[in-house]
Amino acid sequence: MLLMTQNEGELESLVRKRIRALRVAQGWSLEDLATRARVSQSTLSRIENGQRRLALDQLVTLARALDTSVDQLVATATEDVVTNPVIDSAHGQKRWSVKADPGVIVVRQRLTNPPPDNPARMRAHPGREWLVVLSGTAVLMLGNRRFRVETDQAAEFPTMLPHALGAEGGPCEILGIFDRDARRGHQRGEDTGDGGRPVP
How much helix, strand and coil, in percent to the nearest 5, is found in the chain? Predict the structure, then answer.
C-alpha cells in the first residue's frame, strides 16, 4: 500500500522533507537512520530523494526509528496556527488549548491571596504542572518547601507532591500549563481551596 492520497505529490514530498529534517536534527547519517529503521542505506537515500515511492509499511518503520508518529509525519493542517483564548468568566480566566497532547490546557490566572498557611489545604493528585509568572511574585508551596517565583521565572513540578499557589506582596498573574491528570485533579479539588488560585 503506497502513501498516496490528497494532492499526493505534495504530501509525499512533505513527508520526505520531514524524514530528512528529523534525521539531520538528530545528527544522524543516512547509515545511522537506515540501521535504526532496518532498511538499506540506498533505500533510505532513494526515499529521501524522491526516487522511490514511500510505502505505508516503510513510513511506520521510519516514524518509529525517528521517535515520532505517522500522524506527525503526514500532518498537513496549518490553518489553526493562531488560536484565540476561551474566556471562563466563572473563574476569571483565559484558557488556550494545546493540540500537542490531548487534554493539556493553558490557563492565564490572576492570584490575589497568599497560599494557605495550613498544610491540610494543600492538594496532591496525579499529573504535572508548569507555570510562568507574567507579573508580580507568586509563592509555590511544594511539600514542606516554599518557593518564590518572580516575574519571568518559571516552575515545573509533579502534582503528586502536596502543593498550593498564591500571591506575595500584591496580585500576580501566571500562565500555567496543566496536563490531563493535573487538570482533572484541580477540577476534583475545587472545593478544597488553593490559596485563592482559580481552578482550571
Answer: 30, 30, 40
C-alpha cell at 106: 493553558
Task: Give the Cα separation of 157 and 182 in Å (integer).
Answer: 11
3-state secondary structure of 43: helix
How many whole angstroms separate alpha carbon 108 and alpha carbon 127?
19
- Render pLDDT for 123-173 as a digit per residue (tens, 0 to 9): 877 778 888 899 999 999 988 889 999 998 888 888 878 889 999 999 999
SS3 72: helix
SS3 98: coil
Q: What is the largest CA-CA distance in the chain?
A: 67
Alpha-carbon torsion, ordered 10, 16, 21, 22, to 10 deg: 120
Q: How far is CA 101 from CA 62, 105, 178, in A?
A: 22, 9, 11
Evaluate whether 135 touches 173 at the Cβ level (below 8 Å). yes
Q: Is 10 helix (H, G, I), strand (E, B) or coil?
A: helix
- Show Cβ contacts of residue 58 under 8 Å, excluding neighbours closer than 6 positions: 39, 43, 47
Q: Which residues contact 20 (CB under 8 A, 6 or more apart)?
A: 48
Alpha carbons 69 and 54: distance in angstroms, whole number: 15
- How far are the Cα atoms of 49, 52, 114, 172 from residue 178, in angstroms, in the given order? 41, 43, 21, 19
